C-alpha cells in the first residue's frame, strides 16, 4: 500500500527512480536536534523496521522531502513520522501540504480512527503546524517527545 500522487497531492512512493534524491534531503541546521541530519536514516528505518513506510515529498516534479507513515499494533493506530522538508524548500507550505495529504489518505482507511505523531518538546515550529491542523497534544512518550493525535471526528470537523 502506498500513498500516491492523486489530484495533485505532493507525495509518492519511494522507488528506484527517486530514492537517492530522498536520501539527500537535509533539514536546516537549527532543526537537527529534532530530525535526522538526512532523510537517508529514515529510509533505512523503513527498510529495517516492519512498521514504517517511506514516501517522497514532491513539488514541481522534484523531490523536496520525506515522510513516513506506519501502523502500530500495540496501540492500534496510524502514525506519521520522519518528516523532513529540504532546507532549501522550507517556508512554502510544503510541510503543511504533506501532513494534510497523508492524513487525508490515512483517514480514507476504514480502520483509521485517528492519526498520531510525536514531536520534540522544543520544536515549537512543528508543534504549531500540527496544532493548526487539529492535532491535540496528549502526553510525553518514552523518549520525552510529545504524542499528538488527530481523531477522525476532529479532522472531519476541521475540513467540513
From TrEMBL:
What Pfam families is this protein classified in? Answer: Acetyltransf_1
Q: Which domain of life is it from?
A: Bacteria
Q: What are the protein's UniProt keywords?
A: Acyltransferase, Transferase
Q: What is this protein called?
A: Acetyltransferase
Q: Please list the GO terms describing molecular function.
A: acyltransferase activity, transferring groups other than amino-acyl groups
Q: Where is the N-acetyltransferase domain?
A: 9-153
- Decide whether keyword Transferase is in the record: yes
Spell out the PANTHER family in the cross-references: AMINOALKYLPHOSPHONATE N-ACETYLTRANSFERASE-RELATED (PTHR43877:SF2), AMINOALKYLPHOSPHONATE N-ACETYLTRANSFERASE-RELATED-RELATED (PTHR43877)
Q: Establish whether keyword Glycoprotein is in the entry.
A: no
Matching entries from InterPro entries are given as: Acyl_CoA_acyltransferase (IPR016181), Bact_Acetyltransf (IPR050832), GNAT_dom (IPR000182)
Amino acid at each position: 500500500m502506498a500513498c500516491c500522487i492523486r489530484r495533485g497531492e505532493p507525495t509518492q512512493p519511494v522507488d528506484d527512480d527517486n530514492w537517492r534524491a530522498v536520501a539527500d534531503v537535509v533539514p536546516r541546521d537549527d532543526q537537527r536536534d529534532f530530525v535526522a541530519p538526512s532523510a537517508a536514516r529514515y529510509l533505512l528505518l523503513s527498510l529495517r523496521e516492519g512498521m514504517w513506510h517511506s514516501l517522497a515529498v514532491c513539488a514541481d516534479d522534484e523531490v523536496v522531502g520525506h515522510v513516513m507513515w506506519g501502523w502500530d499494533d500495540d496501540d492500534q493506530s496510524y502514525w506519521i513520522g520522519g518528516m523532513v522538508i529540504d532546507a532549501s524548500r522550507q517556508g512554502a507550505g510544503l510541510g503543511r501540504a504533506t501532513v494534510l495529504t497523508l492524513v487525508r489518505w490515512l483517514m480514507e482507511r476504514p480502520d483509521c480512527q485517528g492519526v498520531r505523531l510525536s514531536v520534540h518538546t522544543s520544536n515549537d515550529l512543528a508543534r504549531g503546524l500540527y496544532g493548526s491542523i487539529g492535532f491535540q497534544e496528549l502526553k510525553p512518550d518514552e523518549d520525552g517527545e510529545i504524542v499528538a493525535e488527530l481523531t477522525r471526528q476532529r479532522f472531519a470537523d476541521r475540513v467540513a
